[in-house]
Amino acid sequence: KPFIGKDEVTKHMRAKVEKRKGRGNVRIDRISDGTSACGFAWTWVSGNEEGLRGTTFVELNQKGEIRYIREIPEPLYKPGDLTLELLKAVTKGAEAKPPRDFEKRTPKTANEVAKYLFLEVQGGDINE
């Protein structure tokens, strides 16, 4: 369920901070340089230990207020070789779906790149 409105988002973010208080920090690994939107990659760290990693996309409205946030953490459990073999067995003989159509282009700014990759291309062309 998405959090809608300033009050809901503020309440959610404060609860996340309180829950993690004293248990580590978020390290920003990479950040784009968008004007009205940007993405950043992060890692949860505690002392010398690295934990969960993820990516967050933030978009601002015309007033400079947060309009949209999408946080995508990596999966806690990574599938091993047995999972790969199971997926191969389950999908054996299945026909691949045709890729989605999209307009191939070269975005010029960070926020255009993020939108192009995650809203237009994703699932459209494995080589793109």
Give an overview of the whole structure.
The chain is α+β, with helices and mostly antiparallel strands and 128 residues long. The chain contains three helices and four strands; from the N terminus they run αββββαα. It has helices spanning 6-20, 81-91, 110-121, and strands spanning 25-31, 37-46, 49-60, 66-73. A four-stranded antiparallel sheet has the order 1-2-3-4. The longest helix has 15 residues, at 6-20. It is extended, with a radius of gyration of 19 Å.
For the structure shown, list the relevant keywords:
alpha+beta; 128 residues; 4 strands; single chain; 4-stranded antiparallel β-sheet; 3 helices
Please specify the SSE layout and strand pairing.
Layout: H1 6-20, E1 25-31, E2 37-46, E3 49-60, E4 66-73, H2 81-91, H3 110-121
Antiparallel strand pairs: 1-2, 2-3, 3-4
Number of helices, where a helix is a run of at least 4 consecutive DSSP H or I residues: 3
**Total count of strands:** 4
Strand content: 25-35%
Give the strand line-up of the largest sheet. Answer: 1-2-3-4
Largest sheet: 4 strands, antiparallel
Shape: extended
Topology pattern, helix = H, strand = E: HEEEEHH
Uncertain runs are none
Share of helix, binned:
25-40%
What's the rounded overall pLDDT mean? 82
How widely separated are the two ends?
Answer: 31 Å
Structural class category: alpha+beta
Rg to the nearest angstrom? 19 Å
